[in-house]
Design brief:
alpha/beta; 11 helices
């Protein structure tokens, strides 16, 4: 009986040793580690740079955990929290070209890939980390795309030269006057000049120099513009309603509206309702799909742009062109 107990004890010891070896092996290959995940960091303004529903659907189909940061958390705090949850790729929404240095340092020290969307980051910051990339669009190019259409519209008479001075009299309306929107509107008018169409900005002010509000009561009796330029669907609708109240859409020489929309659906709605003569739009759908694809590539330690037709520039930017919808048939030469 005693011999049997000794044999059993030895057998249990051997089995225990084997179990320890198996556990050590499983730990060594990361079996008990949290499954690698992808995280998303919100921007303070939370503009529609990315469609989170597209990311969620894409990652869910591949059974990849996807975590979102606290919208009110700072970039470093959000990055730290997501990394602790197992995020190896961070999709970061940005309102400014500056990359938070502490967040960048956290990513570098943990070997985490940064996939930036929103405002295009500064070249020096992107170049400082080989796992930092950008997917998005260039505001200047979006403005230029619209500007070409405005130039053609003025040259072919779609935008009437009401006073015959050969200058495009326009009003720039930006309910959000942030740098991104300013660039869009600014480059639209600069591009007009490249096609020989020079412009004059109308600024409505009272006798004391105070800017007038954009209401029918305030602008009654003011000079009718030949063109409104704006950068959101909401602004285009407001300006159209305002122009209708002031009678600026009547007759053979209505004021025209050129706009930049937040996405393709909003642009299409403006065109379908006859609100704008031309609208360029941020390609939210394509940016979102590419971001999802690139995040998975990074998580699988592949080249981030694999299976994409886009190639990054020298700093690591994947630039998605703006789209365009217009009532005009020909491009200006």
């Amino acid at each position: 009986m005693k011999r049997v107990l000794i044999v059993i004890a030895k057998l249990l010891t051997v089995l225990g040793g084997l179990a320890v070896c198996v556990l050590l092996y499983l730990y060594s290959i990361g079996y008990f580690s949290a499954q690698p995940a992808i995280g998303y960091i919100h921007s303070p303004n939370e503009l529609p740079y990315i469609d989170l529903a597209v990311l969620k659907e894409h990652f869910a189909a591949q059974e990849i955990p996807f975590y979102q940061s606290d919208p009110d958390a700072s970039y470093p705090d959000a990055a730290r929290s997501l990394i602790e949850q197992g995020a190896e790729v961070l999709v970061v929404s940005q309102d400014t070209p500056e990359i938070d240095p502490e967040m960048l340092q956290l990513a570098q020290s943990n070997g985490v890939t940064l996939l930036l969307v929103g405002r295009s980051p500064e070249t020096a910051a992107l170049n400082s980390y080989d796992k930092a990339w950008y997917v998005g669009s260039n505001a200047a190019l979006g403005g230029e795309l619209l500007g070409r259409q405005l130039a053609l519209g003025f040259r072919n008479g779609t935008i009437p030269d009401l006073n015959g001075d050969l200058l495009l009299q326009y009003v720039s309306y930006l309910s959000n006057d942030g740098p991104y929107y300013q660039e869009l509107a600014q480059y639209a008018m600069i591009e007009c000049e490249h096609y020989g169409v020079y412009s004059n900005l109308l600024e409505y002010a009272g006798e004391d120099g105070t800017p007038l509000e954009f209401t029918a009561e305030q602008l009654a009796g003011q000079q009718k513009p030949e063109l409104f330029v704006c950068t959101t669907e909401e602004d285009a609708r407001m300006l159209h309603d305002l122009a209708a109240q002031l009678g600026w859409l009547e007759g053979d020489a209505p004021a025209r509206i050129g706009a930049i929309a937040q996405d393709k659906d909003r642009a299409q709605a403006l065109m379908d309702e006859g609100i704008v003569m031309a609208v360029s739009y941020y390609d939210l759908e394509t940016v979102s799909q590419l971001t999802a694809q690139f995040a998975v590539n990074a998580l699988e330690h592949q080249f981030i742009g694999q299976d994409s037709e886009l190639q990054p520039d020298a700093a690591g930017r994947f630039l998605v062109p703006y789209g365009l919808m217009t009532t005009l048939e020909d491009e200006p030469q």
